[in-house]
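<instruction>
Derive structure tokens from the sequence

<record> Sequence and structure tokens follow
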Amino acid sequence: MVIPDTFSGDVDNSNRVLEQYSEDTSIFKIRPELVVYPKNVADLHTLIHYVHTRRGELSLTARSAGTDMSGGPLSSSIVVDFLRYFNQILEVNTVHATTQPGVFYRDFEKATLKHGVIMPSYTASRELNTVGGMVANNSAGEKSLTYGKTERYVHTLKVVLQDGIEYEFKRLTRTELEAKKSQANYEGEIYRRVEGLIHQHHDAIKSAKPIVSKNSAGYGIWNVWDETTDTFDMTQLFVGSQGTLGLISEITFNLVKPKPASRMLVLFLRPKHFAQLGKIVNAVLAHKPESFESYDDKTFNVMLRVFPKLFWRLGGNPFTLLRDFWPEIKLVFQGGIPKLVLMAEFAADTETEAALMAKQAELSIKSFGVSSHITKNQSEAQKFWTIRRESFKLLRENVSDKHTAPFIDDFVVLPEHLPEFLPRLYAILDEYNLLYTVAGHVGDGNFHIIPLMDFSRPDFIQIINKLSERVYTLVGEFHGSITGEHNDGLIRTPYLHKMFSPEILNVFQEIKEIFDPHRIFNPHKKVDADMQYLRSAIKSQS
């Protein structure tokens, strides 16, 4: 494979690099033919035209940090790395920030905080992921209960489409949309066809929009046309599209000013409280926590198992830790390990206001007989975040014969369904004798289950197939989403039929056809699912 001389970036097909780019954080391994590092938009144009000359043989898959858990940035063809050169923050003010996609979120946040603002849909991997990956997956995190997902913060996108030209997309008024549609070129055709598709399938699209608060499954066609304001925003198709419609070259984000003070209300639920879980969650939500997270008894057990190492991550002072963990120690002595721990963090302009909000929420759940604790300061709250974020990571590091297997890691159901949903979920999981924890964003009903599995088991692939089928069928029963923030990728695209009707799946195919008729952008994700390809891509069981 010889990239044209007009390409000014770097090209690498060394064994070391191809091995590095054959994995993300998913269960898949796919070795690319080539990794390229474009320096500018002209290079993206060159790559697209080159791939067109070998149509049907080659494709382009965008990649930045490679923290994706769904197999999204993996390809057997050409991987386009945006991390090396597309990594500049171009402009920041108190309202917007313009950046290239290969910028790490950690660096982006440092730049925005200088102006007292943030882009609040950051993920748990905020120190590792890039902003381009956040857009590609429509990412979310602990603050998304209040602030929403990445889709809410994308103001403008520049995208290089299949004709090799960079286009700018943003929210348009009706007058602006009609002007776009009147153009006798490819851009005009795109706007005419997308609007026509929306009107043709209007009722089906409207009813297909997931009723849960978070969703990254499919294409966000239901967010493009706002009937109330009669505005048309094509960025909503690209957000969460995993690079399957074009190559994003520049992003302008909307920014918000974060609240400076916070207090956390921690609830310790026993099995007897499970029947009231939905009511407890909604009672707390009525007081508008900024975030509402959870972890289960398995996570608590993991914490005990790895406590010596967790001890050092929490500061290493035994007297401080004994004081900070005294509520949990006392709880265990009194009635054993809680079945579920809920963490509601309330943010305000002052510490007094935040403490009052937490106290009012605590009083609202008093009738349920739930043990509770309000943290006194941010450092005390940090221990709960550390348990939530670090325990499973430590367990993974200390179990040598098993590996993380994210494949049912991101489903969403309405919180009021949790008392019925969770016991049925546990019953399914326990049939397979897996080591796993359940943690997530309980305020959104968004849970992450990542089993530790022995990839050498003869029935490893069979377990993944059977469990995925059963869990996503259960999610479908409750009208939930199979992915709230991690997206479809290779792992979930075959299960989109659990969420969407044949008509909507055909709409997704039409969107792909409009933007990528020759399938040059990131194949086998979002549409064109191939179970045989999926199975063959799972990491070697040797």
The CA atoms of residues 304 and 310 lie 9 Å apart. The two ends are 31 Å apart (CA to CA). Residues 378-398 form the longest helix (21 residues). The longest strand covers residues 261-269.
